[in-house]
Amino acid sequence: MLAVCLAFPVRSAAKRFSKEKRRIVSIVVKKGDTLWRLAKHHHCSIVRIKRLNRMRTATIYEGQQLRVPARKPRALVRAFDPIKGQSIGGPRSGHLRHAVRLPRDPAYYLRRPYRAWGASHTVFYIRQAIAAVRRKFPKIHKLAIGDLSARRGGRLSNHRSHQSGRDVDLGLYFKKKPEHYPQSFVKAHPSTIHFPANWRLLRALISTSNKPGGVQRIYMDYNVQRMFYSWARKRGVSPRVLSHMFQYPHGRYSQHGIIHHWPHHEEHIHVRFKCPVGDDSCYL
Ligand SMILES: [Zn+2]
């Protein structure tokens, strides 16, 4: 499933990289390698490898040394380009086309897999943020994931938005996994919550806010914002960073920050992603 989900963006990013100047590295051909496979792995064309190695034919053999463009996995991630035309209309009156399903993954629990459909960039950024948490806290419990959208979007019971594949409800991380979690969301409490893991999740999500299709808004109860705000403040996070992140302490109706108050968001956060750049069928 993942291969299907990411095939699109990775391919378009690869195309972009083939025009760029990249470092050339030397590799040794392994058993079963073909030029086609190497070209795919190194995000370049077969012709490029042939040229780099002054080859007349496409034959390669085990143990042969070849010059190839270096892979750029991190840059590829940065170059992720949201696909236009998936998210139609707005989150409160829209639908989805060619939806991508958030695949199953040991890192999280899908509470309703039939409502785990989204635009490709929504799915991509959710996975990327959770992966960032797992890298730092490999033993952390699964994250509960509530609804994204239905396969074709449109109205979804219990939600006003979640219609166009750009919304997701994410649970929280706890020091000790609560009994009914991740099947149900559990309310945030300063004594039970795993602050550093949730902080990593928030930071990873918010770091996409200046990327195409990245986070537009995160909804979180005002009192929970206060919890995170004071925790971070005590750990020396600068007021400038905090004011970029939180509406707190400016009041629950102020327009400060990316994280805004919404009632009933004490046990989960609601993350909304932007429209792909230049996608006229997608509305804020
Ligand atoms: Zn929601």
- Sketch the major β-sheet: 4 strands, mixed
Q: What's the mean pLDDT score?
A: 89
Q: CA-to-CA gap between the ends?
A: 29 Å
**Number of helical elements:** 8
Question: Which shape, going by the Cα principal axes?
Answer: globular
Could you list some keywords that capture this structure?
binds zinc ion; 15% strand; four-stranded mixed beta sheet; 284 residues; alpha+beta; Muramoyl-pentapeptide Carboxypeptidase, domain 2; disordered N terminus; 12 strands; 2 domains
Describe this structure in words.
The protein has 284 residues and is α+β, with helices and mostly antiparallel strands. The protein contains eight helices and twelve strands. It has two domains: 2-78, Membrane-bound Lytic Murein Transglycosylase D, Chain A; 87-273, Muramoyl-pentapeptide Carboxypeptidase, domain 2 (2-Layer Sandwich). Helix content is 30%, strand content 15%. The chain has a four-stranded mixed β-sheet, covered by helices on one side. A hairpin with a 2-residue loop joins β3 and β4 (93-96). The relative contact order is 0.13. The model is unreliable at 1-19 (pLDDT under 50). It binds zinc ion.
Could you write a compact summary of the structure shown?
By secondary structure, the protein is of the alpha+beta class.
List the helices and strands and how they pair.
Layout: H1 2-18, E1 24-28, H2 35-41, H3 46-52, E2 65-69, H4 73-78, E3 87-90, E4 93-96, E5 100-101, E6 108-110, E7 117-118, H5 120-136, E8 143-145, E9 167-170, H6 195-206, E10 215-219, H7 222-234, H8 239-245, E11 259-260, E12 269-273
Parallel strand pairs: 6-8, 10-11
Antiparallel strand pairs: 1-2, 3-4, 5-7, 9-12, 10-12
Bound molecules: zinc ion.
